[in-house]
What we know:
Layout: H1 3-20, E1 29-33, H2 39-47, E2 52-55, H3 58-64, E3 73-76, E4 92-98, H4 101-114, E5 118-123, H5 137-148, E6 153-159, H6 168-186, E7 193-199, H7 206-211, E8 216-219, H8 221-224
Parallel strand pairs: 1-2, 1-8, 2-3, 3-4, 4-5, 5-6, 6-7
Amino acid sequence: xxxxxxxxxxxxxxxxxxxxxxxxxxxxxxxxxxxxxxxxxxxxxxxxxxxxxxxxxxxxxxxxxxxxxxxxxxxxxxxxxxxxxxxxxxxxxxxxxxxxxxxxxxxxxxxxxxxxxxxxxxxxxxxxxxxxxxxxxxxxxxxxxxxxxxxxxxxxxxxxxxxxxxxxxxxxxxxxxxxxxxxxxxxxxxxxxxxxxxxxxxxxxxxxxxxxxxxxxxxxxxxxxxxxxxxxxxxx
Length: 236
């Protein structure tokens, strides 16, 4: 099927999941995860009406963003290396994977130097999976207080991935936990921290995430198909 038809089906499924949770589709943003996809595939999604895209790697974003119209919204969802922060700019709508203090420090330093306030989501390892990044629940409040001490980092919510081998019931539980954590911490009114956004759910489980309050879902394979082999991006 074409990318256009895939997008239509995804939005239909999102609408059905939202209705089942007594929510409106307008409450949920679809990120078309274009990692490893060629520019032509991303352009096809744009022509089908999609405007919000996500990349895992800074190098791919640097390659694709200039080749797409300027009304595209770009999110960075992969684990961000500190030595790549200097290549980012304020064309990044949201960094989804703030997960450690040295990255927070680097963002603050680069933001101060270049007068950029970085919009971020804090990644939480709700599955407690040692192979995945993200803060543990008990570390989160202290980390948010560290953000409060920053003047060039603004938290807009939380992100989680879940566990690859989890059952649907376990996965839904991970999403429910993130929502519960958000509700508790939002009441603390930490400066520079607004936790309205919940980024959770991917191709295999975005409907479960919508049922548990996701405001952003990240879908790649079911829009673009299997990952493609790209030419190796220029080293930065």
